[in-house]
Amino acid sequence: MKYFILFGPPGAGKGTQAAPLVKSFGLKHISTGELLRAEIAAGTERGLQAAALIDKGNLVPDSMVEEMLCAKFDEAAGCTGFLLDGFPRTESQAADLDRMLGERGESVTAVLSLTVSDETIHSRLARRAVLEGRADDANDEIISNRIKTYHEKTEPLIKYYKAAGKYHEILSEGAVEEVSGRVFKVVEKYFGK
Ligand code: ADP
């Protein structure tokens, strides 16, 4: 099984790039943000707790996302591996992921890091707010907090994965297809193409 991490700030294009990757390489997409939004929409206890944090641009507790993730790893039948999107987001989540995969005799294959400027993030999220109506895209204060959270808590992971020799940086500015081309080039290598 291959375990790819799609990494990058909010608005980097992770969800957009996940779609063609899943289709072409037979990976299973796990977006922790999408799983949380599904819980919120279903009105579960977990969803209620998550909404209060997400709508302010804060992270939810590690245990919450990790429980959801483990359940998804158990549904591995028929895929070549997983594409993790939105996880890990902190150094402790990265350590937990290594442990979870280790228990399965597996490890992270590679990190696909999509890079964009803060300016691009703001304009993409403002556009998405109109198109998708996500509460956490709704105002600049929440968006700024998400970007701040990313820089403080998530960005340190770059060093972690660089040290592990698994880190690939991919420019995510320009046309969607252009970015896909760059991402595919990296992923193809891991499939021996
Ligand atoms: P984006 O990449 O645009 O920030 P996501 O859909 O990945 O959006 O996540 C939306 C929100 O869900 C995050 O801002 C955070 O509150 C919560 N979330 C998602 N994944 C995690 C995670 N791994 N740990 C903690 N919170 C998470």
Secondary-structure map:
Layout: E1 2-7, H1 14-25, E2 27-31, H2 32-42, H3 45-54, H4 62-73, E3 81-85, H5 91-103, E4 110-115, H6 118-132, H7 140-154, H8 157-163, E5 167-171, H9 176-190
Parallel strand pairs: 1-3, 1-4, 2-3, 4-5
Helix pairs in contact: 1-9, 2-3, 6-7
Bound molecules: adenosine-5'-diphosphate.
Adenosine-5'-diphosphate binds next to helix 2 and helix 3.
Structure explained in plain terms:
- The protein has 193 residues and is α/β, with parallel strands linked by helices.
- Helices cover 57% and strands 14% of the residues.
- It has helices spanning 14-25, 32-42, 45-54, 62-73, 91-103, 118-132, 140-154, 157-163, 176-190, and strands spanning 2-7, 27-31, 81-85, 110-115, 167-171.
- Strands 2-3-1-4-5 form a 5-stranded parallel beta sheet, sandwiched between helices.
- The radius of gyration is 16 Å and the shape is globular.
- The two termini are 17 Å apart.
- The model has no long low-confidence stretch (mean pLDDT 95).
- Adenosine-5'-diphosphate is lined by residues 10-11, 14, 32-33, 36, 53-54, 58-60, 65, 86-87, 89, 93, 136, 146.
